[in-house]
Write a structure and sequence with these properties.
This protein has one domain: Vaccinia Virus protein VP39 (Rossmann fold), CATH 3.40.50.150. The chain has five helices and seven strands; from the N terminus they run αβαβαββαβαββ. Helices cover about 25% and strands about 30% of the residues.
Length: about 180
């Protein structure tokens, strides 16, 4: 599989109509739109980013795709409770190409765990350890084993790996 392709990767996430999903670090909204279609009109996507320009781009994409189930939230996910979502509010959290940028990675993981319902899932997509000429420097990349340990230390259990592209790894965790 070539570079990260959300439209293909979403099939591995097993999302169902009516689910509530948080998109941590939504960026331009590409994932939010795909997640929105996967959960359907009865579902909800919370597109969260610290940058207003990213949220504006996400709202623009949602509007042009005629999707009304995407809610944008401006928040610094490195601050505990910043998403403003209630405890156990979502069925799934997507963290795609965002964790490597965070200084307070454990706070981001803690926020995902806090808002996740029991039996909910976290989908993590991060850059592979091998640089390959694209993406962040090797020092910024998080080894897969490190991310697994980080999420498991918050009580999540590794569930499976999924295809996330030629320069990324994808891991799914489940909350007990």
């Amino acid at each position: 599989m070539p570079f990260l392709q959300p439209s293909t990767s979403v099939n591995f996430l097993e999302l169902l109509p009516g689910m509530r999903v948080a998109d941590f670090g939504c960026g331009s909204g590409h994932w939010a739109v795909i997640l929105s279609r996967a959960v359907g009109p009865s579902g909800r996507v919370f597109a969260i980013d610290v940058q207003e320009t990213a949220l504006s781009a996400t709202r623009s994409q949602a509007k042009s795709a005629h999707l009304e189930n995407i809610e944008t939230i401006r928040a610094d996910l490195e601050i505990p409770g910043a998403s403003s979502l209630k405890d156990a509010a979502v069925d799934a959290v997507l963290i795609s190409n965002m964790l490597f940028q965070a200084d307070e990675k454990t706070n981001v993981v803690a926020e995902a765990v806090r808002i996740l319902k029991p039996n909910g899932r976290v989908f993590l997509i991060e850059w592979d350890e091998v640089e390959g000429g694209v993406g962040p420097s090797a020092s910024q990349r998080i080894p897969r084993q490190t991310t697994e340990h980080m999420f498991e230390s918050f009580g999540l259990r590794f569930e499976k790996e999924f295809v996330a592209g030629s320069h990324h790894y994808g891991i799914m965790f489940r909350k007990s």
